[in-house]
Amino acid sequence: MKKFAVFGNPIAQSLSPTIHQMFADQLGETISYEKILAPEDGFVEAATTFLAQDGAIGCNVTMPFKLDAFNFAKVDDQAAKDAQAVNTLMNDDNGKVLGYNTDGIGLVNDLLNNDVEIQGKRVLLIGAGGAARGVISPLIEAGAASLTIANRTKAKAEQVANAVSNSKVQVVALEDIASVAPHIIINSTAASLSNELPCSLNNGVLRNCDVVYDMVYKNSPTRFMREAAEAGVENQIDGLGMLVEQAAEAFYIWTQKRPDTSDIVKRVRDIVEQGEKRN
Question: Which residues are marked as active site?
Answer without folding.
Answer: 66
